[in-house]
Amino acid sequence: MNIEDIKKAMGEAKSRIEIAKGKFHQEGDIVAAYEMAKERYAALGVDVDKAVAELEKQQISLHCWQTDDVMGFESQAGLSGGIQTTGNYPGRARNIDEVRQDLEFVKTLVAGNHRVNLHEIYGDFGGKFVERDRVGVEHFQSWIDWAKANNFKLDFNSTSFGHPKSGDLSLSNPNPAIRNFWIEHTKRCRHIADAMGKAQGDPCIMNIWVHDGQKDFTVNRKKYREILASSLDEILKENLPGMKSCVEAKLFGIGLESYTVGSMDFFEGYCASRKVIYTLDTGHYEPTENVADKVSSLLLYVPELMLHVSRPVRWDSDHVTIMNDPTLEFFKELVRADGLHRAHVGLDYFDASINRIGAYVIGVRATQKCILSALLEPLALLRQYEEEGKGFQKLALLEEAKTLPFGAVYDYFNFKNGIPVGEAFIPVIEQYEKEVTSKR
Ligand code: RNT
Ligand code: ZN
Question: Which of these is catalytic: 316, 333, 351, 411?
Fold first, then answer.
């Protein structure tokens, strides 16, 4: 399939959105349901129009790696470094054009202006091998141009996995040759992020996640953590106004189960003492931990949060984000802590077992739903009950709030923005699969 055919298929898919809208829902029904919902919420002191306007402004950083199972274009060596995709559903994006086509298509199915989160291995290397300590802004110029043309802002990530020098330890490696290689890589990535941020007139958020750890008993735990802290200090010492850096904590990686250098405690201390943005991946904690409870403590001590919204199933499995209790509670805590404006919302999952575009759209929409649900919480009344010691009333209202006509508000939000309402996006994705991804 050549580029013209793909463009044609996308045009047809877009016009099908119009058909789907009419088929599944009548305009009048959506608006009428919204008006009724507004009254119900208003009775509880909630301004629904304001919540919808806030959701419209909320950018979500689309993780480019959902399109191609975290492969990138540097080599086809496969994943290493503690993470893994499972599944081999057909249609994986195989090159830069396909990744961009998929992202452009996803954009037609989600309301709002969003961001694209790139990893260093997704550079435009022109078919040549570019070593990671040689990467530069020139390898991302076409992404900068594409983002501008498609009204996306870019975020960025250094990439320490999937490389012969990845090993068990990268930035925390006692061997200076390996450590300096990764320091140089990460410094260069910050310069790329700085150029992206300047070009888009909005800071590019650059995440640093290193997989560093050990499979088994580790007796030099403090030593590697000291090295990681000093490598990060070295990397972060240059002030680059076009970008903001964040560092990601993790529980464990596959094959690195016994020790993680960049643990939660390590990065909480690091971010609090250095005033660096903390990256909170919702899949990176013990399965029984209440991740939502971390928000209010972190916001007291770190400048901002970068979010990797994910769904762990038994472990850090990176299942597709859905509107489940932990994710709902997580965004409620952000709103309750007045922290939404201090959080950069991004997604991080990679499901290769179902239609990848479908997985993408489900995750974005679920994240929006969780944010909207948090914005619609009758918070003033709940807080009043709590302060007055009215425990029964608070619990009752929390329960009733669950079945308020939230769906009518989310439908209206999509409808207002010309996006398929409800399940109407399913046939649109089926069509894209038939015409585009199944032919890859
Ligand atoms: C890994 C981290 C990290 C990666 C991406 C690809 O556990 O969550 O954010 O998923 O950098
Ligand atoms: Zn992550």
Answer: 316
Q: Which residues span the domain enclosing 312?
A: 59-375
Ligand 2 centroid–CA 361 distance in Å is 18
Q: What is the pLDDT of residue 3?
A: 52
- Residue 350, CA distances (Å) to 145, 291, 339, 355, 362 in order: 26, 20, 27, 11, 12
Structure tokens, 100: 């961009």
* Averaged pLDDT, 402-415: 97
What total of structural domains would you count in the chain? 1
Note the pTM of the prediction, 2 decimals.
0.94
CATH number at residue 258: 3.20.20.150
Identify the three-state secondary structure at position 308: strand
Helix (H) or strand (E) holding 347: strand 343-347
Number of Cβ within a 10 Å radius of residue 145: 12
Structure tokens at 92: 């994986």
411 Cβ closer than 6 Å to some ligand 1 atom: no
Pull the structure tokens for residue 352. Answer: 């290769």
Q: Which SS3 state, helix, strand or coil, does residue 316 take?
A: strand
**What value does the mean pLDDT take over residues 250-256?**
96
Q: For residue 287, is it within any domain?
A: yes
Residues 269-290 have pLDDT tens digits of 999 999 999 999 999 999 999 9
Q: How many other C-beta atoms lie within 10 A of the C-beta of residue 432?
A: 28
Q: Which two tokens stand for residue 359?
A: 């997985």
pLDDT of residue 75: 84
pLDDT one-digit tens code per residue, 188-200? 999 999 999 999 9
| Helix (H/G/I), strand (E/B), else coil: 400 | helix
Q: How many CB atoms lie within 10 A of CB 388?
A: 10
For residue 394, being part of any structural domain is answered with no
The residue type of 95 is: N
CB 85 within 8 A of CB 69: yes
* Whole-number CA gyration radius for the chain: 22
Q: Tell me what pLDDT residue 1 has.
A: 47
Q: Is the pLDDT of residue 301 over 50?
A: yes
Tell whether 352 is covered by a domain: yes
Tell me if 211 CB under 6 Å of ligand 1.
no
For residue 118, being part of any structural domain is answered with yes
What is the mean predicted confidence (pLDDT) over 385-409?
98
Catalytic residue flag (residue 29): no
